[in-house]
Write a structure and sequence with these properties.
The chain is an alpha+beta fold and 176 residues long. The protein contains four helices and six strands.
Protein backbone atom coordinates (compact mmCIF):
# COMPACT_ATOMS: atom_id res chain seq x y z
CA UNK A 1 0.00 0.00 0.00
CA UNK A 2 1.32 3.46 -0.91
CA UNK A 3 2.37 5.77 1.90
CA UNK A 4 -0.03 8.69 2.43
CA UNK A 5 1.24 12.22 1.94
CA UNK A 6 2.14 13.71 5.33
CA UNK A 7 0.30 17.00 5.97
CA UNK A 8 1.89 19.43 8.41
CA UNK A 9 -0.36 18.96 11.44
CA UNK A 10 2.37 18.90 14.08
CA UNK A 11 1.72 21.82 16.38
CA UNK A 12 3.96 21.11 19.38
CA UNK A 13 5.98 18.27 20.87
CA UNK A 14 2.89 17.05 22.75
CA UNK A 15 0.19 17.84 20.18
CA UNK A 16 0.96 16.13 16.89
CA UNK A 17 -0.62 13.99 14.20
CA UNK A 18 1.42 11.92 11.78
CA UNK A 19 -0.61 10.38 8.99
CA UNK A 20 -0.03 6.66 8.58
CA UNK A 21 -1.40 3.85 6.41
CA UNK A 22 -3.93 1.32 7.67
CA UNK A 23 -1.18 -1.31 7.43
CA UNK A 24 0.91 0.65 9.95
CA UNK A 25 -1.64 0.03 12.71
CA UNK A 26 -1.13 -2.92 15.05
CA UNK A 27 -2.97 -6.05 13.90
CA UNK A 28 -5.37 -5.99 16.89
CA UNK A 29 -5.92 -2.25 16.93
CA UNK A 30 -9.39 -0.95 17.76
CA UNK A 31 -8.91 1.43 14.81
CA UNK A 32 -8.67 -1.58 12.48
CA UNK A 33 -11.89 -2.97 14.00
CA UNK A 34 -13.58 0.41 13.44
CA UNK A 35 -12.35 0.44 9.83
CA UNK A 36 -13.77 -3.05 9.24
CA UNK A 37 -17.10 -1.97 10.72
CA UNK A 38 -17.18 1.21 8.59
CA UNK A 39 -16.19 -0.54 5.35
CA UNK A 40 -18.75 -3.31 5.98
CA UNK A 41 -21.63 -0.81 5.99
CA UNK A 42 -21.81 -0.38 2.21
CA UNK A 43 -19.87 -1.60 -0.84
CA UNK A 44 -17.12 0.53 -2.36
CA UNK A 45 -16.97 3.11 -3.88
CA UNK A 46 -20.00 4.44 -2.00
CA UNK A 47 -19.43 6.24 1.30
CA UNK A 48 -21.54 4.73 4.09
CA UNK A 49 -24.34 6.82 5.57
CA UNK A 50 -25.15 7.35 9.24
CA UNK A 51 -28.51 5.70 8.51
CA UNK A 52 -26.71 2.44 7.66
CA UNK A 53 -26.26 1.63 11.35
CA UNK A 54 -27.49 2.40 14.80
CA UNK A 55 -25.40 2.58 17.95
CA UNK A 56 -26.18 -1.03 18.85
CA UNK A 57 -24.48 -2.15 15.61
CA UNK A 58 -21.13 -0.61 16.61
CA UNK A 59 -18.79 -3.31 17.95
CA UNK A 60 -18.99 -3.20 21.73
CA UNK A 61 -15.20 -3.27 22.06
CA UNK A 62 -14.77 0.07 20.24
CA UNK A 63 -17.86 1.95 21.42
CA UNK A 64 -16.23 3.61 24.47
CA UNK A 65 -13.58 5.17 22.20
CA UNK A 66 -15.66 6.34 19.22
CA UNK A 67 -16.90 9.79 18.38
CA UNK A 68 -19.43 11.07 15.86
CA UNK A 69 -19.33 14.60 14.45
CA UNK A 70 -21.78 16.40 12.20
CA UNK A 71 -20.15 18.49 9.46
CA UNK A 72 -21.19 22.16 9.63
CA UNK A 73 -20.60 24.04 6.36
CA UNK A 74 -20.45 27.84 6.33
CA UNK A 75 -21.15 30.07 3.32
CA UNK A 76 -17.48 31.11 3.11
CA UNK A 77 -16.48 27.46 2.59
CA UNK A 78 -15.08 26.89 6.08
CA UNK A 79 -16.09 23.84 8.05
CA UNK A 80 -16.75 23.16 11.69
CA UNK A 81 -17.89 20.04 13.50
CA UNK A 82 -20.64 19.49 16.05
CA UNK A 83 -20.04 16.58 18.38
CA UNK A 84 -23.05 14.27 18.30
CA UNK A 85 -21.55 11.47 20.39
CA UNK A 86 -18.37 10.96 22.40
CA UNK A 87 -17.62 7.55 23.91
CA UNK A 88 -17.23 7.34 27.67
CA UNK A 89 -13.54 6.38 27.55
CA UNK A 90 -12.79 9.22 25.13
CA UNK A 91 -14.56 11.65 27.48
CA UNK A 92 -12.56 10.35 30.44
CA UNK A 93 -9.32 10.73 28.48
CA UNK A 94 -9.86 14.35 27.39
CA UNK A 95 -11.55 15.39 30.62
CA UNK A 96 -14.82 16.82 29.27
CA UNK A 97 -17.81 15.86 27.14
CA UNK A 98 -18.16 18.08 24.04
CA UNK A 99 -21.42 16.41 22.93
CA UNK A 100 -23.77 18.99 21.42
CA UNK A 101 -21.06 21.60 20.91
CA UNK A 102 -19.04 22.82 17.95
CA UNK A 103 -15.30 22.27 17.97
CA UNK A 104 -14.89 26.07 17.85
CA UNK A 105 -16.80 26.32 21.15
CA UNK A 106 -14.42 24.01 23.02
CA UNK A 107 -11.04 24.27 21.38
CA UNK A 108 -8.69 27.13 20.60
CA UNK A 109 -5.55 27.30 18.46
CA UNK A 110 -3.46 25.20 18.07
CA UNK A 111 -5.80 22.41 19.28
CA UNK A 112 -8.63 23.56 17.01
CA UNK A 113 -6.50 23.56 13.84
CA UNK A 114 -4.91 20.27 14.82
CA UNK A 115 -8.32 18.63 15.14
CA UNK A 116 -10.19 20.36 12.33
CA UNK A 117 -7.40 20.03 9.73
CA UNK A 118 -7.55 16.24 9.83
CA UNK A 119 -11.37 16.25 9.77
CA UNK A 120 -11.41 18.76 6.88
CA UNK A 121 -9.17 16.45 4.88
CA UNK A 122 -11.55 13.49 5.28
CA UNK A 123 -14.55 15.66 4.34
CA UNK A 124 -12.87 16.96 1.18
CA UNK A 125 -11.40 13.62 0.05
CA UNK A 126 -14.22 11.32 1.18
CA UNK A 127 -11.81 8.61 2.32
CA UNK A 128 -10.74 7.47 5.78
CA UNK A 129 -7.47 8.58 7.29
CA UNK A 130 -5.28 7.01 9.96
CA UNK A 131 -2.98 8.73 12.43
CA UNK A 132 -0.37 8.25 15.09
CA UNK A 133 -1.05 11.24 17.30
CA UNK A 134 -0.55 12.96 20.61
CA UNK A 135 -3.63 14.56 22.13
CA UNK A 136 -4.13 16.70 25.20
CA UNK A 137 -5.11 14.73 28.27
CA UNK A 138 -7.12 15.84 31.28
CA UNK A 139 -4.41 14.87 33.82
CA UNK A 140 -1.22 14.40 31.78
CA UNK A 141 0.46 16.68 29.25
CA UNK A 142 -0.72 14.37 26.51
CA UNK A 143 -1.48 10.78 25.61
CA UNK A 144 -0.30 8.96 22.49
CA UNK A 145 -3.11 7.49 20.40
CA UNK A 146 -3.90 5.67 17.19
CA UNK A 147 -6.72 7.52 15.43
CA UNK A 148 -9.04 6.61 12.58
CA UNK A 149 -11.39 9.06 10.89
CA UNK A 150 -14.15 7.69 8.63
CA UNK A 151 -16.48 9.69 6.35
CA UNK A 152 -20.25 9.21 6.35
CA UNK A 153 -22.50 10.64 3.61
CA UNK A 154 -26.30 10.64 3.50
CA UNK A 155 -26.20 10.82 -0.32
CA UNK A 156 -23.23 8.37 -0.49
CA UNK A 157 -21.01 11.11 -1.96
CA UNK A 158 -21.01 14.35 0.11
CA UNK A 159 -19.55 13.85 3.57
CA UNK A 160 -21.94 15.18 6.23
CA UNK A 161 -20.79 13.23 9.29
CA UNK A 162 -17.53 11.84 10.62
CA UNK A 163 -17.18 8.62 12.58
CA UNK A 164 -13.89 8.43 14.43
CA UNK A 165 -11.95 6.59 17.06
CA UNK A 166 -8.97 7.48 19.21
CA UNK A 167 -7.28 4.51 20.87
CA UNK A 168 -4.50 5.02 23.43
CA UNK A 169 -1.20 3.56 22.23
CA UNK A 170 0.85 1.47 24.63
CA UNK A 171 3.79 3.87 24.26
CA UNK A 172 2.02 6.83 25.87
CA UNK A 173 3.86 9.97 26.83
CA UNK A 174 4.56 13.44 25.62
CA UNK A 175 6.82 12.57 22.68
CA UNK A 176 6.23 11.14 19.25
Amino acid sequence: MARPVQPAFSKSPILFADRIALDDLPERSLVRIAHGFWRGLTPEPDIPARSDFDATDVPRKIMPWVFLHEVVRYEDGTLDYRCKLMGTSAVAMIGFDPTGHLNTEYYSAPSLRYLNDSLDEVVRQGVPSFWKAGVLHSRLDSVAIWRGIFPLASDRKTVDKILGIGEPRPDTGSTK
